[in-house]
Task: inverse folding
C-alpha cells in the first residue's frame, strides 16, 4: 500500500513541477496516446500553400507547426496570445522569415459568432491582407478572418470539439464545459453566416489513453479551459481514484473530438 501511495505522490509531484513551453507535449510521449486522425493537418495546409504570397497562422504556440511548412510564403505572420510562447515562436520562426505578433484571442467560438466585442480588439491586420489563414486549435472570429482574407482567400482550421475528453470532467465530479455543442456543424454555420462559401469539413471521434495519473494532471495544467481553475489540491480524492483505476484496470480511456473545416471567401464581383 505504501509503495502505491508513493507512486501516486511521485507522479503528481513530477507533473506539477514539469514546465510547459510552446505547444510541446513531448513530456506526455507514450503516456497520453491519441488515435491517429484520418487527416494530417500539416499535409492539408501544405496542399493549399501553392501560389500563396501572404499567410497567417492564428495561435502559433511556439511555432512548432508553422515551422514544418517551410519554405514559407514571402509574407508570413503568426499570432500568439500566451506571453511565454511568443519569444519561443519568434526565435523558431525568424530563420524562415515569419513575424510573430502578440494578440489576445477571442473567447471560445461557441460563444463568439459575431464581430469583436468592444473590449476584444480585432485582428491587427488590414482588410484583404492574406491569401490563406490557418489555425490549429485556436479560437477565432469568423467575421475577422473573413475581413483580412483577400477575395478568393481560404481559411482552414483544425479544432478540438466540445465533447473532447468530457470523461475527465465526469471523473473529477465537475460540470462539463459549456462549449459542449461546439462541433463541425456549428463551425460551418458560423463561417457561412460571416459570408464564406464552399464551407466543408470532416469530424472525428476517437479514443485517447492516459497511462498514468501524472499524464492527466499535466494535460489539465496545460489546457485550462477543460477544467477551469484546476488544482491538484481541489481534486485530490478524484485523482487518487483515477490512479487506482489505472493501476487496477489499465489505461484510462477517454473520447477525443476533433474536426477540420475549410472555407473560401467569395470572389469580388
Result:
Amino acid at each position: 500500500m505504501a509503495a502505491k501511495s508513493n507512486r501516486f505522490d511521485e507522479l503528481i509531484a513530477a507533473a506539477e513541477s514539469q514546465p510547459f513551453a510552446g505547444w510541446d507535449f513531448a513530456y506526455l510521449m507514450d503516456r497520453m496516446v491519441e488515435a491517429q486522425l484520418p487527416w494530417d493537418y500539416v499535409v492539408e495546409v501544405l496542399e493549399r500553400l501553392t501560389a500563396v504570397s501572404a499567410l497567417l497562422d492564428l495561435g502559433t504556440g511556439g511555432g512548432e507547426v508553422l515551422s514544418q511548412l517551410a519554405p514559407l510564403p514571402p509574407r508570413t505572420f503568426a499570432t500568439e496570445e500566451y506571453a511565454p510562447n511568443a519569444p519561443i515562436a519568434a526565435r523558431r520562426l525568424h530563420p524562415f522569415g515569419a513575424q510573430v505578433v502578440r494578440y489576445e484571442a477571442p473567447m471560445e467560438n461557441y460563444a463568439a459568432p459575431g464581430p469583436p466585442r468592444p473590449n476584444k480588439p480585432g485582428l491587427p491586420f488590414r482588410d484583404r491582407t492574406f491569401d490563406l489563414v490557418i489555425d490549429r486549435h485556436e479560437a477565432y472570429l469568423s467575421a475577422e478572418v473573413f475581413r483580412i482574407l483577400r477575395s478568393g482567400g481560404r481559411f482552414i482550421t483544425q479544432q478540438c470539439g466540445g465533447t473532447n475528453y468530457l470523461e475527465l470532467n465526469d471523473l473529477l465530479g465537475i460540470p462539463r464545459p459549456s462549449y459542449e455543442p461546439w462541433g463541425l456543424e456549428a463551425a460551418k454555420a458560423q463561417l457561412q453566416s460571416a459570408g464564406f462559401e464552399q464551407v466543408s469539413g470532416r469530424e472525428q471521434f476517437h479514443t485517447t489513453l492516459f497511462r498514468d495519473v501524472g499524464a492527466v494532471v499535466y494535460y489539465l495544467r496545460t489546457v485550462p479551459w477543460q477544467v477551469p481553475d484546476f488544482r491538484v489540491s481541489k481534486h485530490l480524492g478524484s485523482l487518487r481514484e483515477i490512479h487506482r483505476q489505472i493501476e487496477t484496470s489499465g489505461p484510462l480511456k477517454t473520447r477525443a473530438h476533433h474536426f477540420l473545416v475549410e472555407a473560401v471567401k467569395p470572389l469580388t464581383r
Remarks:
- The chain has one domain: 2-264.
- The first strand starts at residue 32 and ends at 34.
